[in-house]
Amino acid sequence: MNIARYISHKIDGADSGSFTSSVTKIAIISVALGVAVMIVSFAILEGFRNEIQSKIFSFGSHLQISKYDTNNSLEVEPIGEPRLVSELRRFPQVKAIQPFARKTAIIKTRDEVLGVVLKGIDEKTSPSTMRQNLVAGKFLTFPDTAASTDVLLSRKIADKLRLKIGDEALFYFIQNPPRVRKFQVKGIYQTGLDEFDDVFVLGDIRQIRQLNAWPDSLVGGVEVVLRNFKQLDPVAESMYENLPYDLKLDKITEQYAQLFDWLQLLNRNVVIFLLLIIFVATFNMVATIFIMILERTNMIGVLKAIGATDNQIRSMFFFRGLSLTLRGMLYGNLVGLGFCAMQYFFHLIPLDPENYYMDRVPIHWDPFIIVVLNVATFCTSLLAVLIPTYLISRIRPVTAIKFD
């Protein structure tokens, strides 16, 4: 029988109703709250990150290759698609390639006029990730015989122009000679990001080819989706070295640097916040063990008098602190994971899309992070338990027995 563990268990039952009992409850609650808040914080942080990155990638992918041009216009010189695509597919990190073309236009309805950018895509090459942002209507159709006249508007553009699903609108393209096309609103999307919702209309790339008199082999550029976003920098560097001199490669993190900087800042703030939580929980555990030792000073003196070693007595309080830590972690996981599950399935907490880019608090499940948080809490709590137990070696039996 482990004497230290046995006495620790007996102390646990004997503490009920004493001051130590109240302190141990506070310690358990502090550990539970710390674990719960950390789980919820990281789940929300990763949820925000994934949601925003997913919205950005749906429009720009990870890498974008186009003709090198000193002009900052959204319309660029065309490049040959077949040869470029075959070169890009040689990279094992490439998951998908989506050709695109852009053309500025003015939408005119009966009452409103608005300047937009028509972005043409080719659904035959790879399915568009923009489907995830669809909030009304259907996605674009791509007939085999002719260019589609369907377009996808953002919620903001549709509201400004007072257009709804099925309505038709005239698109005026400023070129020589000027061209006019009638398009039908097939669907409405919403990303919550002004960089996209205020500007872009989605359509068939063949319409832009016809307007620019391009053959089917030419596109405005290609967007590249990688298998692992974390490999963006090394893949971009390797890919850039193999591109022709007249092509440029843009990383999504540079095109929308302000959004990724905001995510990085958010991540830094959460880390600081979590460190403070761990510090508070650790301090409470240290204080709890100190109080337990002070209240049991007489018992420590008696145990030393009958031959108990410092290590045995120290182990007794160590097991006591271990029990408090495990109980706090259990309750914290139940509360944290329970809250995340409620928000994930029932969307209890809404958000204003104008400020947060989404209409609800997002939750992302990452078992690895949950395990790491629990291990970190467990280790720091055990270290906190060990610190005050070294006070036991300084307690003298005669003085401790007389202690009141």
TrEMBL record:
Membrane-spanning segments: 26-45, 270-294, 330-349, 369-392
Membrane topology category: Multi-pass membrane protein
Transmembrane recorded as keyword: yes
Keyword Ribosomal protein in record: no
Matching Pfam families: FtsX (PF02687), MacB_PCD (PF12704)
InterPro entries linked: ABC3_permease_C (IPR003838), Lipoprotein-release_system (IPR051447), MacB_PCD (IPR025857)
Organism domain of life: Bacteria
Subcellular location: Cell membrane
Protein's UniProt name: ABC transporter permease
Main location, first listed in the record: membrane
Residue span, ABC3 transporter permease C-terminal domain: 272-396
High-level lineage: Bacteria, Pseudomonadati, Bacteroidota, Cytophagia, Cytophagales
Entry similarity comment: Belongs to the ABC-4 integral membrane protein family. LolC/E subfamily.
Span of domain MacB-like periplasmic core: 26-237
Cellular component terms per the entry's GO annotation: plasma membrane protein complex
GO biological process per UniProt: lipoprotein localization to outer membrane
Keywords linked to the UniProt accession: Cell membrane, Membrane, Transmembrane, Transmembrane helix
